[in-house]
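Data deposition worksheet. Section B asks for the primary sequence of the deposited chain exactly as it was used as input, without tags or linkers unless they were present during the calculation. Section C holds the resulting structure in token form. Section D is free text for depositor observations; keep each observation to a single sentence. Incomplete worksheets are returned to the depositor.
Section A, Depositor: J.P.
Section B:
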Amino acid sequence: TADHYVVVNFDAFVKFVDAIGGIEVDLPAPVDNLPTSFYPQGKQTLTGAQALELGRVREKYSDLQRIDNQTVILKGVLNKIKNPAILAKLPAIYRALKDSIVTDATPDQVSSLICLAGKLDAQDVQFFSPPQELLTPAMVYIPNLDAEMQVFQWDQGLVDWLHQSLQAAKP
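Section C:
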């Protein structure tokens, strides 16, 4: 069960990354989204728009690659916000995000979360990608998109893997 929620739209993500001065990512392989964009292998600094675009690349790649890209981006955000210099940017971050986030958390809770986030290390946060053999692709009609799309169907093996991974991750 969730105690609280935070809903962040894409504009808020772009504004947040820009407000913290961009993020550094280290891509294990190039990401070719030409003619729109191309991200070479290795370390690079991304703006908010670039980070969002990289995190949404899916035309030439599977959802699993998109998840891996998003993991690299989240690690970049975590590494950036642990820098104490980010505290000086809090007013700009607040101004950038105040109209783009919906939450039931109180201002004190949000403040505590920001302070806690600055103490997190990307190595302290665990990311999981299920083994490919546990994912069963299927084509499903999605009415609101009026299109047939590939989805992954869940079975008991994937559910068991999720539970085992989360239990193993507990300190």
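Section D:
The chain has a mean pLDDT of 84.
The CA atoms of residues 16 and 94 lie 9 Å apart.
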